[in-house]
Structures are given as C-alpha cells and as structure tokens.
Design goal:
The protein is α+β, with helices and mostly antiparallel strands and 200 residues long. It has one domain: Beta-Lactamase. It is built from five helices and seven strands. A hairpin with a 7-residue loop joins strand 5 and strand 6. The longest helix has 23 residues. The N and C termini lie far apart (53 Å). The relative contact order is 0.22.
C-alpha cells in the first residue's frame, strides 16, 4: 500500500488538527515520540466519542493491536463495541486488508498517519471517513496508538448506524498519507503592540 508524504496542513478537521498539534509540540520538544501519559490535549473529553485507544504488541509480526476503548460514534458505525478485542479480528476479513496496513505504516514509520475514505450510508449518501493515527512510545517501541475517527457528509445529515459494515460496497480510499514533513508546531503569530515596537 502506497502512502503519500504530507505535512500537518493535510488534516481537514480543526479538532483533529488540535490533537496533531499537541502531539507535534511534544515530539518537537524532545525529537522523539511522546509518551502516552504525557499526552493531554485541551478539551480531550469532548473528543472521546471519536477516539479509539489501542495498545500495540510489537513482539509479533505484524504487530497486534488491542482495542482498549472505542468511541461511541465508532461503535455505532461498526455496529458493535470492540473493546478488549484484537483490531484485525474486530474488522473482519473484508475490512482488515484495507485498514490494517494504515496502522502498520504508522507503527513502522513512527509517525502520524492520516487517511480519507468515502463510503455510502444506507440511504446512499456519500460520507467521508477521516482517520488520524498518533503513535506513542513508553519503552522505545510503539506501545500505543490513538485514533481520531471523523465522519462528515457534504449532504449534511447521514445515518451512522452500521455505516461501515452495513453496505455491500467497501470504503473507497481517497487519501493515504504519512505526516513526515514540518514536524513542529507553529504557534499562531502575534503582532507586537505599539509600545513594544517603540521600545524594541
């Protein structure tokens, strides 16, 4: 599976960009992957319905990912909860070959991955599924991944229940990237006041 090289600006969702910027600040500080315990984005509670946390066992090849929590919206999209299950088994034979390579690339590259795929809801409305994966390391290897999973439709409303498993068509990939450029967080610029200009 091919992945494009991208910078943080590729991420469309403002909330996903906030999650990525928090990761980038910690990455830039030490030039290393953040620890899970140090990752504390603002308004994280508001995002929990769209977040899934995985533990990663890198002692096997390919690595095994276990779902430790799954957001309520994503449970609805998949039709059931996956907490405590291996991700590949939860996805099943149809979806795993399409989805797992994204997680494996995130682990192998030790960098965030961002993908967009289109799918139809039960009323044939096109829904874009935006996935941001952030890797974390507690012992040198990748030990955790946080996935932020957003669904949006240009038609406005859509039916999320069984969105991913509920139709015969597989999701259509539109974008697959590894975020490997501009790996720093650029804080918003501030214009000096007149006093600062006068005495600088």
């Amino acid at each position: 599976m091919e992945f494009e090289s991208a910078g943080p600006s590729i991420v469309k969702s403002i909330k996903q960009r906030d999650l990525l910027n928090t990761w980038l600040r910690q990455y830039a500080r030490d030039q290393s992957i953040p620890r899970m315990s140090e990752y504390q984005p603002a308004r994280i509670e508001d995002e929990r319905p769209d977040l899934v946390i995985y533990t990663v066992d890198s002692s096997t090849q390919p690595p095994r990912l276990t779902i430790q929590s799954d957001g309520t919206r994503m449970s609805a999209a998949y039709g059931n909860t996956g907490k405590g299950r291996y991700l590949d088994e939860y996805l099943g034979a149809r979806l795993a070959p399409m989805v797992m390579p994204v997680y494996y690339a995130c682990i192998a590259r030790r960098l965030p991955a961002y993908t967009i795929a289109n799918m139809d809801d039960i009323y044939r409305r096109v829904v874009a599924y935006e996935r941001l994966l952030l890797p974390f390391s507690d012992d040198g290897s990748i030990t955790h991944i946080i996935a932020s999973l957003k669904t949006i439709s240009e038609d406005g409303g859509f039916e999320i229940k069984n969105l991913i498993r509920g139709n015969d068509k597989l999701p259509v990939p539109k974008l697959r990237t590894i975020i490997d450029r501009d790996l720093f967080h650029r804080a918003p610029g501030r214009i000096p006041s007149g006093d600062e200009l006068e005495f600088s």
